[in-house]
Predict the structure.
Amino acid sequence: MPLVQIRDVTKVYPASTRGGEPVRAIDGVDLDIEEGDVYGIIGYSGAGKSTLVRLVNALESTTSGSIIVDGTDITTLSERELRKLRLGIGMIFQQFNLFSSRTVRGNIAYPLQVAGRPKAEIRARVDELLDFVGLADKASNYPDQLSGGQKQRVGIARALATSPRILLADEATSALDPETTHEVLGLLRTVNRELGVTIIVITHEMDVVQSLATKVAVMEKGRVVESGDVFDVFSRPQSPASQRFVSTVVKGVPSDIDLEALRARHSGRFVTVTFRDGGASQSDVFLEFGREGIGFELVYGGVNEIQGRAFGNLTLELTGADERIDAVIDRLRERVEIVEVV
Ligand SMILES: Nc1ncnc2c1ncn2[C@@H]1O[C@H](COP(=O)(O)OP(=O)(O)OP(=O)(O)O)[C@@H](O)[C@H]1O
C-alpha cells in the first residue's frame, strides 16, 4: 500500500474580496507516494504545490477528498491525533524558518522538547543529528552566524529530530546558490537512501527534480497534469506544461528559434529521433539511412542521463529522394521514435 494516498482532493479558499471568486487551489488531485520515493512536485507559481503539501501534514484541511497516510485517513483525525501524525512528518522550508534566538543545538532540540522527551535522550539525539548534517562544530552558534547552506542543514536536522518517515521539502534549495544547492540535495539523497525517509520535494526548478527525485508530478492550476517515473516523464513528456519544464533541462529538441537558425543553414528535411536504452541504437538508425543512400547530418541534439539511464534526442538533416526518405522513416518508426520537424 502506498505510504501516502491522495484521493480526489480539492481545496477551495474563500474569495479574498467581497464579490470575488473562491480560489480552487487544489482541484481533484490523485497521487500515490510509495515508501522510499523521492517524489518531486513541480509547477509554476500558484499551481497549488504548497497547498498540497500543507494538506499532507494537515496544516490545512481539505475541502473534499481523502488523504491516507500510512493507512489512516488524516482528514478524519482530531487535533490531538493530528499532533501525533505531524511528529512522523518533518518539513523544511525555503527560508529555513529557524528560531533566531535559539542556537543550532536549541533549534534541533525543539521538536523533541515539544514531544516531551527526556533531557539526556534529547542531548544524545541532537549530537547524532549534528554529526549527520556535519555541523557538530556549530552547535553553539546562532542561525545568523551561519551560511544559507548551513541554515538548511540545521533545518534538515530539526525536521529529522523525531525520526519521521516522511520529509516535506518546500522549495528547500530555492534561496541557495548552485554549489550549496548541490550540497543540500546530496544531503537529502543521503536522508532518503540511508535513513529510508520518503521525501516529497516541491520545486519550480526541473534540475532539482532531475538530480534528486525518482518520481515526479507536474501541477498546473491545482491539477496534476502528468505524473510518473522521472525517466519516463523526462524522456517522453506528454502535457504541454511537462514539455516546457523538461525543455529547461533536457538537451536535444530544437526550439522554434533554433529551427529558424538551422533552416537558414540547411536545406534538407529535418527529423528528430529519440533514443532510449532498450530501443534501436544510433548505429541501427544511421545504417538504415546509409543503406538507402540517404545523406544524414546531425544538426542538433544531445544525450541525457537521468537516474542512471540514458536517452537522446538527435535532430538530423536528411538529403536524398523524398520517397526513399519517407520509406525509411516509416520503417524506422517501428523501432524508434522519429518525428519529422516541419
Ligand atoms: N490561504 C490562502 N487563502 C487564499 N488563497 C490562497 C491561500 N493559499 C494559497 N492560495 C491560492 O491558492 C493557489 C495555489 O497557491 P500555492 O501557494 O499552493 O501555489 P504554489 O504552486 O505553491 O505557488 P508558489 O510557488 O508561488 O508558492 C494560488 O492561487 C494562491 O493564491
The chain has a mean pLDDT of 93.
